[in-house]
Amino acid sequence: MSFILPGIISLIQYLETLQKAPESYRPERCPHPDCHHVGLWCHGCYTRKPDRKDLGEPSLNPVPILRFFCSECGCTCSVLPECIPPRSWYLWQVRQVIFLLLLAGNSLNHTLAINGSRVSRTTIKRWWLRFNDCFVSFSLNLLPHFPCLGRHAGFSEFWKACLALHPLSSAMRLLHEEGVCVP
Ligand SMILES: [Zn+2]
Questions:
Q1: Phi, psi (5° rounding) for residue 158?
Q2: How far is ligand 1, taken at its centre, from the CA of residue 36, in Å?
Q3: CA–CA separation, 80 and 64 (whole Å)
């Protein structure tokens, strides 16, 4: 089970806070729906390698992800910053750039060319198909959070309006909190 920290939209922001105020990352309550016990114990960490930029800058990998243990229900949870997707190697920030290019009407090949070779064509296509396939579920679960999006019925219009208001990471965090499996 993972708990997603809202408002942490870059790896640098996450790592700086981890160094200065790690205690701020301890969840207030157990995230298990039947528990919500207060007072989780630190339970070590594991590492992720989400920094896949190739711009000659030093990599921020490996990034530690904190884990916590609930003594009440025996459940462990990891605490992910909002910028790191639960199941993808690429940061939401990278995926948002690609998503916006596709929403603007660029073809897969043109999007790939603009983006360089950082993400493969197969991966870009898989993300795009997944967002299209899940549109009904994603939009229905996001509308209670962003009622103004109700004016935008189509896929492109909905996502363009949504991303003009909030980063993709925030929309995906809200879906994760609703129990929706994000791509
Ligand atoms: Zn618990």
A1: -60, -50
A2: 6
A3: 9
Distance 27 CA to ligand 1 centre (A): 11
pLDDT digits (tens, 9 = 90+) for 135-165: 999 999 999 999 999 999 899 999 999 999 9
- Pick the closest to residue 6 from 25, 29, 22 (CA basis): 25
Q: What are the tens digits of pLDDT across the range 53-83?
A: 755 677 888 999 999 999 999 999 999 999 9
Secondary structure of 36-93 as H, E, C letters: CCECCEEEEEEEECCCCCCCCCCCCCCEEEEEEECCCCCCEEEEEECCCCCCCCCCHH
33 CA → ligand 1 middle, Å: 8
